[in-house]
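In line with agreed milestones, the collection of sequences with tokenised folds has grown. A representative record is reproduced below.
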Amino acid sequence: KKLGYEVDYLYQGALKTYSIILLYGDVEIIVIKKNVSDKPHVDMQTLAMDLLDILGKDPTFKSVDYSDKTRIRITAQKPTCEIDILPSMWINSAEYLKTKNEIYRGIAEFDFKNKKVKKYIPFLNIARINSRDQHTKGIFKALSRLLMSLRADAQDKIDLKDSEINAILYSLEETPIKVEPGKILPLLPVVAALLNTLSTDNSCFNGL
């Protein structure tokens, strides 16, 4: 407020889909600038630098990193956890303008290292994941948490984001993931076969 910003603060990622796992779960906060000029890339650079300056002065953080020039990653000390701060701006999709339903509202994410802008609709993604989990009586998120736990425990780094794991599982038809609630281990061969296909079939991977 002191710097004259009008911003919205919203969560995205596993915290909003309730698929977060203890000890390894990250928090993603989107900082959305509302009063954007006709030079949004300049506005986003300024917002990122101002956030970096403010957060860097907080002694309770172990580290504040903006090396990827997309999001600011904070490592908190007690408890130890990682928090991603994503500077962005609103993008009003045609569906949002028609329905005024907030889940169709998009954001623009600026990657200043690679000079790219990514536009997407994170809240529709969250709504779809929550809906799929309801239809499968909790199986979807149980599988998601299991894969995230396996990724966290792996000796060799597995370079898959939470959102990518959810996208992979979402591509499964609902029929093969309908098993008794709480009994997800029989589904592992199905998931393993899908992962194997994605790792060896470029057309399937690119299609997903």
